Sequence to fold (228 residues):
Amino acid sequence: MAKKIIITIDGWSSAGKSTLAKQLARELGYVYVDSGAMYRAVTLYFLRNHIDWTDKTEVQNALKDIQLDFRFNEMSGSSEIHLNDENVEYLIRDLVIAEKVSEIASIKEVRAFAVTQQHKLGTKKGIVMDGRDIGTVVFPHAELKIFMVADSAVRVERRFKEMYKKKPNVTIEEIRDNIQMRDYMDSHREISPLKKADDAIELDNTSLTEDEQFQKALSWAKERIKSQ
Fold:
């Protein structure tokens, strides 16, 4: 029986990380963990409960009341995040959350909270986790690290098409501004900034189809599994 590995997928906002991560997890029989969903769920909790995230004590107290876990939904065929036993998978995809998540994810206490949760999920290996600092901070010794990039205009177009289905009144300018803001905040934050790990393989999917990028990444995964 082949040994299981940890696969990390980091990269820019709307570069297709979660799509690829879900495909790899499904094909390999691994658990998919959306680290971004964790930060989005924390953001949802903070907004709902009017938490002042500039107040360190208030943040620490709020985090004590947050329980996050992923549960497999047979209807959707994927793992979905639950916040204090409530399925918030679709609530956290709102643009209001997207506008605040980078700011909240840059808070030291929030990142420490999320990383602790992520480490627990990775103890048995056999996971695919995507995010911004998974290969650099969360699992620096992961067997396969992928860093995804794509032309910014392509990322804006993809995100717009995705959001338009849920929110037809959204504008492409809103999406462009949001992605530019998140790119800047993710790469300039003091704690765990977005950057490519030295041993990560870059995957530029600007001109690739979903299947092309999947086949490329799957071949890398099979090579790493075989070498264990």
